[in-house]
Amino acid sequence: MVNKAGSSFKLANTFKIMDTNRSTTLDMKEFESCLNKIGFFMSKVETQAIFKVFDKNGDKVIDMNEFLNALKDPLNKRRLAMVNKCFKLMDKDNSGVITKSDIADLYTTNWHPDVVSGKKTVEQILEEFLSNFEGTSGNRDGQVTWNEFLGYYEELSMGIPSDD
User: Fold this and answer.
1) Domains recognised in the chain with CATH numbers
2) Cα 156 to Cα 11: distance, rounded to the nearest angstrom
3) Spatial separation of the C-alpha atoms in residues 144 and 125, rounded to whole Å
4) What is the predicted pLDDT for the residue at 91?
């Protein structure tokens, strides 16, 4: 069995090695060089097409999140069923979107250190907590869609070697 936790760590390290100019992103030249190093010699058009698969936001560079997300596996049936169950539990009004009002009874913020100290409001802590479930591809709009929630758990799943 492949150790996924080790795999995601190795992928992250591979990304850092490919990032020869240390910009924390891969540009087209670095990406093409990487493909050549692993034996994929392609035309410019083919390389650009593959690059676009990784460059989800179209900014002409691939960041670490885009790189890892393009290589992530879908959840297996067991994990998918559990994630679906959790989403339905959190989506109290069955709207298909998780909002602050959905989770207000599930996540108690009254004793959060930043609330107690007055640095943040209960509302701000709920927003921060909720935004975690949007994953790296979420739009931080205060609502978590099923696709954002699923994406978050697909990303998380990369680092979990076994369902056991």
Assistant:
1) 4-71 (1.10.238.10), 77-157 (1.10.238.10)
2) 14
3) 15
4) 96
Give the length of the chain: 164
Residue whose structure tokens are 């007055």: 118
Does the pLDDT at position 5 exceed 70?
no
Q: Is 164 exposed, middle or buried (0-12, 13-18, 19+ CB in 10 A)?
A: exposed
Alpha-carbon gap, residue 80 to 86, rounded angstroms? 10
Q: Is the pTM of this model over 0.70?
A: no
Amino acid (one-letter) located at 121: T
3-state secondary structure of 98: strand
Q: Any residues with CB less than 8 A from the CB of 126 and at least 6 apart, and which?
A: 100, 103, 104, 107, 109
pLDDT in tens, 126-147: 999 998 888 777 777 889 999 9
- The token duo for 119 is 């640095």
Tokens describing residue 137: 């591809």
In angstroms, the Cα distances linking 140 to 12, 71, 128, 131 are: 24, 23, 9, 6
Q: Which residues contact 117 (CB under 8 A, 6 or more apart)?
A: none
